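user:
I keep going back and forth on a fold encoding question. Separate attempts, laid side by side, tell us more than any discussion would. Would you put together a sequence-and-structure record for a protein of your own picking? Write it directly below this note and I will take it from there.

assistant:
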Amino acid sequence: MKRKLSLLLLLLSTVLPLSARGYIGLNQGLVGSAVEVGYMTRSFEQNLSLSLPLVHGNFTTPMASGNLVWRIQRFNPLVIGVGVGGRFSWGADDGYILAGGLLLSVSWETFGRGEVLFVEGSYMPFSIEGGSAIDALARHQTGQYLRIGHRHLF
């Protein structure tokens, strides 16, 4: 047990750079609303989010997503990000959809105040479905291509 804990601490310390700033955020997509957590440095960003399709009023089809983004800060305070993303949506009846693809984000960052406004577009051409038949809402949720949001940096 002690060995596993020390390995976990070592992995966390190598993955999370000292210059990273953690954040929490809210965003709205075409299908669902999400809460996200992540961290960013001057050149890299990573986040995880959990989304519910509140636009359709259905709480039985959540979606989790993760993004890895390379950030280009040549136009401060405007930042452009390019990266990869993955999405996983599942239904109450044991069906799921796993999707992956590319994304492009544009954000307006005011680090002095710790606020970030962003717009993200994504293209998810790869998807795998499994389990029992899943409703069309899960397909729309993993395939949504636009989200707008706000992040608060710590």
